[in-house]
Design goal:
The chain has a domain of about 170 residues. α10 runs antiparallel to α11, α10 packs across α18 and α16 packs antiparallel against α17. It is α+β, with helices and mostly antiparallel strands and about 575 residues long. It is elongated. A hairpin with a 6-residue loop joins β4 and β5. About 55% of the residues lie in helices and about 10% in strands.
Length: about 575
C-alpha cells in the first residue's frame, strides 16, 4: 500500500495535464486577439495611406478645377485666359500641362500651356490623344490611365472636365504623380512590408520596394486579385478588405481600399511572419512560462518519488545485466514492503536462469560441434573431387576469419565467416565433374555452367535456418566491387560485407595455391595481384585488412593455414 500511496501522491502533485490545458487555452485565445490587432493595424495603415493619396491627388485637381470657377472663362480675352492657365502652372508644380477645347472638342489656339519649355512633339501628341479620349460623353471629372512622362520616368495622370452651363468647352490637364510615388516608396510597413497603388485593370500606378515599375501587371497578387473580383460588374463603390493572402513563404497580411475618384486600389502588404511577430513572441513567452511550471512540477514529483526511484534503479540495472547474459546477478534491497518481496523473487529467478544457462551452453556447444563437423564434411566432399583444391575451402574460411578479426567484427560474425568460407563453393556439388575437373581452359558455355554454382549453393543451404546468415557468402562471393560480377551484379557496399571478405580470401588462396593452370605465386606477387584487383573486383578496405593480417602474423603458403581460433 505504501507504494500505491507514493504513486497516487505523485499523480496529484504533478498536474502537468491541467497546466498544459491552461497553457493551450491561453495561447489560442491570446493569439486570436493579437492576430485581430495586427489586422486592425493594417486596416488603420491603409486608411492613413488613402488620406495621404487623396491629398496628393486632390490638391492639384482642385487647382485645375479652379478654372471652372472663373466667371465667364470663355468670354475673357485670350491674354486673360492664358494668364489663368499660367497661374495654375505656376502655383502647382505637379500640374504639367493644360489644354482648353471648345464645345466640339477641338483644341483652342493659344490655350495650351506646359510647365516645361521645348516639349517634344511626341509629348504634345500624347497629351492631346489622352485628353480627346476622355472628352467622349464626359459629364464630370474623368481620369485616364496613368502613363510614364516621356521626358522622365515619373507617372503622369491625365484628367478632363466640362466647362460652363450649358457646356461651352472642356479643360484637360496632365498631373505629375512623382510626389505620390515618392510617398509610397518611403512608406514602410514594418521592416519588410510596402504599399502600392493599382488601377482598375490591375496595373501598377506607383509602389514601394515589393513591386516593379509603372504599368507592371499586379493583378495576380493576392489582394489585387481579390479586389478585381469584387469589382466585376460594379462601379463607383468604396471597398475595404483585410486578411491573409497567399501560402507558404509568399503569404502576406494585406489590406486595401479604393480611391473613389479614380477607382484605384491602395494596398498595404506585409509578410505574415513579420506581421504576426508579436504573436510568435507571445507564444514563446507563454511556452516559456508553461515550461517553467512543468519544471516546478517535475522537481516536486522528484522530491516525493526519491524513495521510490532508488530501488527501481537497482531493478533496472539488474534487468539490464540479465538481458546481457549475466545470469545469477542479484539486487540488494532491504525493505519490508512490496519492493523487498519483488527483490527476493528477482534474485531467485536470476539464480534459476544461471542454472538453465549453464545447462544450455553445454548442449549448444555439443550441437555446434556437430554442425561444424557436418559443414567440414560437405566442404571436403567438394575438395575431394580435385586434388589441387583439397583444403581450399578450409583455408578460405580461416583467412576470412583473420580478415574479419582485423575489421573488428563480432564473434558471431567471425563464426559466420568461418562457415561461409568453408561452404562458399558448396554449389559445385551440382556441377558435372567433366567441367569441374577440366585441366584446360573452360569454353564460354562451360564457364556459364560453372557460374551457376553460387546460386546452386544458395539453394542448397537455403532451407537450413542455422545457415541463414551464411547464404550471402555462398551466393555473392563472386560479385565484383565494380558491379560486373555474378550472379546478381551487385556493386560496392551493396555486396554484403561477409561476402566481400570471403571473396578476398578466396582470391588470395587461389593465388597462393597450385592449380592445374598455374603454380602457387610468391606472397609478394599474390599481393601485387590483389592490389591490382582492389577497387575493381575486391573491396579496397578488405584488401587493406588482409595486408595488415600478413604484416602482423606472416603466412606460409600452399597447404598451410593461418592460425585461427574462434571463440567458443
Amino acid at each position: 500500500m505504501r507504494l500505491f500511496k507514493a504513486i497516487l501522491l505523485l499523480m496529484l502533485v504533478v498536474g502537468v495535464v491541467p497546466t498544459l490545458m491552461v497553457g493551450w487555452l491561453s495561447v489560442s485565445h491570446t493569439r486570436e486577439l493579437l492576430v485581430r490587432d495586427a489586422q486592425e493595424l493594417a486596416q488603420e495603415r491603409v486608411k492613413q495611406l488613402r488620406l495621404k493619396a487623396e491629398i496628393f491627388l486632390g490638391e492639384p485637381t482642385d487647382a485645375v478645377l479652379g478654372l471652372a470657377r472663373v466667371p465667364g472663362f470663355f468670354g475673357l480675352p485670350l491674354e486673360a485666359q492664358q494668364t489663368h492657365l499660367a497661374s495654375v502652372l505656376n502655383q502647382r508644380r505637379d500640374v504639367l500641362a493644360l489644354t482648353v477645347f471648345d464645345a466640339n472638342r477641338q483644341r483652342l489656339p493659344g490655350l495650351q500651356a506646359f510647365s516645361k519649355h521645348d516639349v517634344p512633339p511626341t509629348a504634345l501628341a500624347g497629351h492631346e490623344e489622352r485628353a480627346r479620349a476622355l472628352l467622349e460623353n464626359i459629364e464630370g471629372v474623368r481620369y485616364a490611365d496613368v502613363v510614364k512622362d516621356p521626358q522622365g520616368s515619373e507617372p503622369v495622370l491625365t484628367l478632363a472636365f466640362p466647362l460652363g452651363e450649358p457646356v461651352r468647352g472642356y479643360i484637360a490637364a496632365d498631373l505629375s504623380l512623382a510626389d505620390l510615388r515618392k510617398m509610397l516608396e518611403q512608406e514602410r510597413v514594418g521592416s519588410t512590408g510596402f504599399a502600392y497603388l493599382a488601377d482598375r485593370h490591375g496595373h501598377l500606378v506607383a509602389g514601394g520596394g515589393g513591386v516593379a515599375g509603372l504599368g507592371e501587371d499586379v493583378a495576380q497578387r493576392g489582394p489585387v486579385a481579390h479586389l478585381l473580383k469584387q469589382l466585376v460588374g460594379k462601379s463607383d463603390m468604396e471597398l475595404f478588405h483585410v486578411g491573409n493572402f497567399g501560402e507558404g513563404r509568399d503569404a502576406v497580411v494585406a489590406a486595401y481600399t479604393v480611391l473613389p475618384e479614380t477607382g484605384w486600389a491602395i494596398v498595404s502588404e506585409q509578410p505574415v511572419e513579420h506581421a504576426y511577430r508579436q504573436v510568435d513572441t507571445m507564444e514563446q513567452r507563454i511556452l516559456l512560462g508553461l515550461g517553467a511550471a512543468i519544471l516546478v512540477a517535475v522537481v516536486l514529483a522528484a522530491l516525493f518519488s526519491r524513495n521510490l526511484t532508488r530501488p527501481l534503479k537497482g531493478f533496472i540495472s539488474g534487468a539490464l545485466e540479465l538481458a546481457h547474459g549475466k545470469f545469477g546477478v542479484e539486487v540488494d534491497i532491504q525493505q519490508k514492503n512490496e519492493l523487498g518481496e519483488l527483490a527476493q523473487t528477482f534474485n531467485y529467478m536470476s539464480k534459476q536462469l544461471l542454472a538453465y544457462d549453464m545447462e544450455n551452453r553445454g548442449l549448444y556447444e555439443s550441437l555446434e560441434k556437430g554442425y561444424l563437423e557436418t559443414i567440414v564434411a560437405l566442404a571436403n566432399s567438394i575438395d575431394s573431387k580435385d586434388a589441387y583444391t583439397r583444403g581450399h575451402s578450409q583455408r578460405v574460411g580461416d583467412v576470412s576469419v583473420q580478415i574479419g578479426r582485423e575489421l573488428s567484427l563480432t564473434e558471431r560474425e567471425l563464426r559466420q565467416l568461418q562457415y561461409g568460407g568453408i561452404l562458399h563453393d558448396i554449389g559445385k556439388i551440382g556441377i558435372v565433374e567433366s567441367i569441374l575437373c577440366k585441366q584446360t581452359k573452360l569454353t564460354d558455355q562451360e564457364m556459364a555452367i560453372m557460374r551457376e554454382h553460387p546460386a546452386i549453393g544458395d539453394a542448397i543451404i537455403g532451407p537450413v535456418s542455422f545457415l541463414g546468415a551464411v547464404r550471402a557468402c555462398v551466393r555473392h562471393h563472386h560479385e565484383r566491387w565494380d558491379g560486373t560480377g555474378y550472379p546478381d551484379k551487385l556493386k560496392g557496399e551493396d555486396i554484403p560485407l561477409l561476402a566481400r571478405i570471403v571473396a578476398c580470401a578466396d582470391t588470395f588462396d587461389a593465388c597462393t595455391s597450385t592449380r592445374p593452370y598455374q603454380k602457387a605465386m610468391p606472397l609478394e606477387k599474390a599481393m601485387e595481384i590483389l592490389d591490382n584487383l582492389s577497387g575493381a573486383q575486391l573491396d579496397p578496405k578488405v584488401v587493406q585488412a588482409l595486408k595488415q593480417v600478413l604484416a602482423k602474423q606472416g603466412v606460409r603458403l600452399e597447404g598451410h593455414r593461418l592460425p585461427v581460433k574462434l571463440a567458443s
